[in-house]
Amino acid sequence: MHKRIALLLALVLLSVFLTACYDSREIDDYAYVVMMGIEHGVSDRIRLTLQIPEFTNTNMSDSGGGGGGNGGDDEERAKKENITVEAPSIFAAVAEADTFIPKTINFMHLNAVVVSEDFASSGEMKEFVVNLLRYHEIRRNTSIIVCKGSARDFVMAARPYLGSLVTETMEELISKADITGYFPKLTISDFAIKVKSTYTQALTIYAALNKGDNFIEKGQYYTGGFKAPSDFYAGDMPRTGGQEIELLGTAVFELGNMVGKLTGFETQMVELTLGNLKRTSLTIPDPLEPELYIPIEIKELEPPFTHVDIKGEKPMIHTTLSLEGEIVTIPSGINYESPDMKGIVEEAVAQHIADGIKRTFAKCQTLKTDVFEYGTEAVRHFWTIQEWENYNWRQKFSEASLMLHVDFTLRRTGRFIETAPVQEEKK
Amino acid sequence: MIKDGKFGYHEAISIFVITIFIKVFFTSPTMVAKIVGTSGWLMTLISALSTAFFFTFQYLLLKRFPNMSQMEINDTVLGNKLGRLLTFFFSAYILIVAGIDMREFIEVMKVFVLPDSPPSFIMIIFCACIVALCATGLETIARFAKFIVYIVIGGYILVILLSIPNFRLYRLFPLFGYGLDKTLITGFLRSSYYGEIALVGAFAKSLQGSREIKRIGYTSIFLTGILTSSACLFFNLAFSYITAQEQVSPMYTLATMVNLGTFLQRVDPIFLFLWNFGTFIEVSVFFYASMVMFCHVFEISDRRPVLLPMTTILFCINLIPKGLNEVSTELVQSLRTWGWVFYFLPSVLVLIIAVLRKKKGELNNA
């Protein structure tokens, strides 16, 4: 009898504990921020824009989560999903947002932090962005972007493209850095480490909204000669259509202030030198007919080798790049496939890359920013941190000489083994 | 009746490896980076060597008095009053260390995982687990440690392997950090990191003689030296010496940084398990050792009645620090720097006195 009563009591007591926590929270109790925009405020110190998409059934074509949907609803949806608050600090702005957002704001799924160029140049970015990492909800692998113009406009323009989620769109767009090399793939963690580093300087992705203003629909045909592809900044691409967000180039920082930017081509050169770009495409002027181009797919043959000689008063940087590649097309029809002609293309590619790197190196020297991370090699010559810090690499980098050797081997020529000439009318 | 029981060297090594190595998951590597910069991995090897040196004295003492625990040796060499006073102080010290380590764990848990939970709530659950573990006796703790040690080390290796993309070799340079002299001196002082090996004296009667104690001691120091040095090395590879000085829990941060494609990321919950299990064992071992010594001093044969009052004291010690900064920069730092005085010096002094007074254990007298 006693056992039965005890069992009954145990079951009754157990039921009390099976009702779950009184303060438990379900997934839909939270408002998940996927993008954050930071810029100078007008009524207060900063203007914070948060994109909080409404995650709905992805199979519903008219209400794809994350801001997608029919054109008519877009404006209204963007207003609802993007909130902007001005406050003295980021978390004061979040606290203020809590007064009109019924759900708890959560940053666990924050995908990118977007900072306006003005804000980044003012030197305040290091204070706000680096400190974001203190907060336990913000993950270190959140991407960091500096945008031309307003961060609010940029965040509001971030919408799902050929998919249902804005997070997916941004992740896929940023992953393109591995293929093109036109912008770096950097996170808040990278920024926080590099902004305090004595070996190198901080960089971020440079981005802008492109509303098609640079696209000239009608006019005289282009006759201006060779231009390296993407040798401009985000927002300057002559294009129309697609989404407005454009990631192109690198924002360069010195001691936490944005001091300059690199074009897409310059960024590609930096990424090649750093060994981050394992495979990419490059377009060079045809060595024998310079008005025509040769697109080439290049691959890293061996990791870049760098040696920094600090014996002299000025450091001497020796870098060797070993690349290989494949011709994609030969518009001139010149038979570069033949063993006699192959060397001409190889030399032209090597020269094109060397010129690009030297140009970028010189630009970075004037900015006093070692974006090539040569400091990571120079530091190996020092035994103690005091010796290294006294050497003042940032200053030394601006005086350094670069000895560059680019080795390019043409491996394949696409599906053609030889270019037969196009028949011309006999005179 | 709580019985110590007997266990082999595998179990004993597991206890000491977990108890010593688990500290690397908290704020210690950050403090090391602050003091020596990039040479933390070298510094901890020096600490391990220093510990091996100090442990030799304790081993010689235990060898001189076979089948006796450290507490009994203290009584024999120093006399009942002085010996028990020394044991009592060591017991109190061990309990304080348990409290500080537990509070460090709770603070780090609060920062990363349970920001909304009150510390006292985490403490109560933690204390309940310790009571349950200690009530089953030392042998159970040892066997549990043997089971957990593989999971802790396996999980640690997994986190390190997943973090390889975040490693940069140049971050190890300059190799001697803030100077070789500083690395050597700090390495010697921070031998307290491996101080838990001194608890072998309290558990000596559960082990299989002095030869096995020697094996357990040196093997534990060697293994934890290698593991801790590797952890400091990987930590240095992931963060530059400046950023390394900022992290609350470098190893946990490393786990949060794992990002291999869109699929393999957010693996920190794996790490959380290792962290919890390891700390439960660490604090339980300290607590149990303290209880054993306390009961010896006051000749309490049944330890059960002591369990709850001592848990209350542990809970109260936990409440003393005001917050994480006080725990990490003041209390833990003091323990790591000066703990060797409490861990190792008593054994050295007792050995010297035993030699001077020609005191020996029964088997050696025979």
Describe the 3D structure.
The complex is a heterodimer of chains A (427) and B (366). Chain A has two domains: 26-217 and 224-270, no CATH class; 278-418, GMP Synthetase, Chain A, domain 3 (2-Layer Sandwich). Chain A has 14 helices and 14 strands. Chain A has helices at 2-17, 71-81, 90-97, 117-121, 125-132, 151-157, 166-175, 177-180, 188-195, 264-274, 339-367, 375-378, 385-391, 393-399; strands spanning 30-32, 35-40, 46-51, 82-87, 104-106, 112-116, 143-147, 203-209, 245-254, 257-262, 279-285, 293-309, 316-327, 401-412. An eight-stranded mixed beta sheet of chain A has the order 4-3-2-6-7-8-9-10, sandwiched between helices. In chain A, strand 2 (35-40) and strand 3 form a beta hairpin. In chain A, helix 5 (125-132) packs across helix 9 and helix 10 packs across helix 11. Chain A starts with a helix and ends in a 15-residue tail after the last strand. Residues 59-69 of chain A have low confidence and may be disordered. Chain B starts with 8 loop residues before the first helix and ends with a helix. A two-stranded antiparallel ribbon of chain B has the order 1-2. Chain B has helices at 9-21, 28-36, 40-64, 70-78, 80-112, 119-135, 138-163, 180-189, 210-238, 250-256, 268-297, 304-319, 324-343, 345-356, 362-365, and strands at residues 259-260, 264-265. Chain B has 366 residues and is mainly alpha-helical. The longest helix of chain B is centred in the N-terminal third of the chain and has 33 residues, at 80-112. In chain B, a hairpin with a 3-residue loop joins strand 1 (259-260) and strand 2.
